Amino acid sequence: MPHPAPAPVIGVLALQGDVREHLAALAEAGAAARPVRRPQELAEADGLVIPGGESTTISKLAVAFGMLEPLRARIRAGMPVYGSCAGMIMVAEKLLDGREDQETLGGIDMIVRRNAFGRQNESFEAAVEVAGVAGGPVEGVFIRAPWVESTGAGVEVLAVHDGHTVAVRQGPVLATSFHPELTGDHRVHALFVDMVRATL
Question: Which residues are catalytic?
Answer without folding.
Answer: 85, 179, 181
